[in-house]
Amino acid sequence: MIIDCHGHYTTAPPAVAAWRDRQIAALADSSLTPSRAELRVGDDALRESVEPNQLRLMDERGIDLTVFSPRASFMAHHVGDFATSAAWAALCNDLCHRVSRLYPERFAPAAMLPQSPGVDPATCVPELTRAVEELGAVAVNLNPDPSGGHWSAPPLTDRSWYPVYEKLVEYDVPAMIHVSTSVNPAFHTTGAHYLNADTTAFMQLVQGDLFADFPTLRLVVPHGGGAVPYHWGRFRGLAMALGRPPLEQHLLGNVYFDTCVYHQPGTDLLFDVVPTRNILFASEMIGAVRDIDPCSGHHFDDTRRYVEAAGLSAADLAAVQEHNARAVYPRLDALLRSQNR
Fold first, then answer.
1. C-alpha span between 41 and 95 (Å, rounded)
2. 284 is catalytic
3. I want to staple 3 with a disulfide (CB 3.0 to 4.6 A). Which of 107, 183, 258, 325 is the partner?
C-alpha cells in the first residue's frame, strides 16, 4: 500500500465556507450565530468535492489511502473565542468523518482541535474524545500557535499542554504539529508560517524533556520538518550545548517527519539525514502548492516521484510508504486490518 499521512479537505463544498462566513459575521451579534444543523451538505455534494479532486489525483499517483483532516489554513484558531472554535472544529471534523464513511478504503479521518488563543488547551479534550470515540479519528492536528503568527502560546513542552498529551497517549493516537493561517503580515501562511512552525516546534522539543513524561507520545512534524534536516548539525550542537542527549535518543523515538518536500534535492536530503524509520510518506495534496513544475513537467506535490527516486532499498521504500504509518498510527493500522489490508 501507499499511505499518505497528510491530506486536508481543501475542496469542501462552498456551503461550508458560507457557513463559516456567517459564523464570523455573527461575532458582532451572537444572536446571528448559525447552528451546525444549518449547514446542509448532502452526500452527493461531498462526492462531487473529492472525486474529481483528491480521489482523481490519488488514483493517478497510485496512493491507496489518505489520512484526511480539515483544511489547515481554515482552522483559524485566532478567530473569535473558544465557542467559535469549538463549533467550527466539530463541523469540520464531522465532514471529514462523513467523507471517510463514503470512501472507507480511501480516507481515514483526522481531527482538528478547538484551540483558542489564551485558552487552556485542556478545553480541547472533549472534542478530541468525540473525534476518536465517535468519528473514528486516527490522529489529530495540534496547533502550537493558535494566535495565527504572533506566537503567544507557551512552548509545546509546557505543562499546560499535558491534558491533551495524556488523552493522546490514552487513545494511542499521534498528533501532527500543524499551524493555521498567519495574520502576521511578516509571515506568509504556507511559505513562511508553516515552515517556521515546523522548525520552531522541533527546537522546543530539543529544549525540553517532554518524552520523559510521555514516552509513548508520537508527534509528526510535517513539510519535511521545515528547516530541521537542512540544519541537523545545528540542532545536534544545540542539544549538546543544552545538556540534552543526542537527538537520536532524545527525540527520534517519538518524533517523525513527512515527505511533503517538493523537489528531488530536498527529498534526497531528508533521507540522507533522518533515519528512514522516522519518515512517513505524504503529499499534502490538494494543498499549498498546486502547479506543475516547469523543470520536471510534473506537479510539485507529486511526492511519490521524489521518494521513489531517492535510492531507497525495497524494504525502506515499503516502510516509508506504508509500514511506518501503520506503526505511528495504530488506529489506522487497526482500521486497515479490519478491511483485510
1. 9
2. yes
3. 325
